[in-house]
Amino acid sequence: MSKPIALITGATSGIGRATAQLLFNEGYRLIITGRRSQRLNELSLDLKAEEDEILIASFDVRDPEACERFVSELPENWKDIQVLVNNAGLALGLSKFYDGSLEHWNTMLDTNVKGLLYMSKAVAKGMRERGRGDIVNIGSIAGKQVYDNGNVYCASKHAVDALTQAMRLELAPAGIRVCGIHPGAVETEFSLVRFEGDSQRASSVYDGFENLVAQDIAEAISWVLSRPKHVNINDLVIMPQAQPQASVIHRNTPS
Ligand code: NDP
Ligand code: 8X3
Hints:
By secondary structure, the protein is α/β, with parallel strands linked by helices. The chain has one domain (about 5-240): Rossmann fold (3-Layer(aba) Sandwich), CATH 3.40.50.720. It has helices at about 15-25, 35-45, 65-70, 100-130, 150-170, 190-195, 200-205, 215-225, and strands spanning about 5-10, 30-35, 55-60, 80-85, 135-140, 175-185, 185, 210-215, 235-240. It starts with a strand and ends in a 17-residue tail after the last strand. Bound molecules: NADPH dihydro-nicotinamide-adenine-dinucleotide phosphate (NDP) and 2-hydroxyethylsulfonic acid (8X3).
């Protein structure tokens, strides 16, 4: 039997990179995407992948034509995508909405909501024709609970939650499974991006408690995909033990 193909967006870092590594080791052929092509090349080298085992594609998920063109122009032996992991996303800033930056808002909504939609629309076409497929959307605890100063990021992830439900409803008749995974604090480049390169502020987010790591989420994705075909895991909320709610983190507590 031929190896299944998984397309992972945002594979240059964090959760996407860890997921690519795990799925590759589990025997998937990978399509890895992100804007930083150098990182994608490095990942491919790290994995010691053969030419027909990994396809690299560098494009911005905010560009609808780029998403559509990339998927529709895939080489014949890469067209049969079994798994789409919609992972590319980001937060920018942490402030009251009335002090918010329009540029930040647009980037978050264009990436987290519209980018996910563009990729899903493009990939769902082939999945529907083949009558099978898995879509895993990476939401966030911010898509379940709103926290102070998180406003537009939270709204974008609430939209991901709603779209995950909509996709499941509309794709179930075609035999396609759709799952939403909603992590709490995972130490990746997420906070570095949110605080625009301020590494001290970024690392302080993870001080004094045991945060999640990207591998925790990759393992959850792998578990979801490995369920028997008749089982759809709808929704997983995965938190550090020390973060019982989005806005509550117990730091420096004796273990
Ligand atoms: P990272 O910053 O480490 O990774 C984000 C990935 O998204 C990168 O590969 C980046 O690639 C890609 N990306 C961002 N914008 C674009 C774009 N416009 N086009 C294409 N790719 C893009 O963060 P995480 O791994 O933590 O984040 C992955 C997902 O997990 C995000 O959706 C995030 O919201 C979500 N999440 C993260 C949590 C956390 O605490 N870390 C918790 C809950 C959810 P590149 O820059 O090369 O384009
Ligand atoms: C990332 C988790 O709580 O930092 O989505 O927004 S949080």
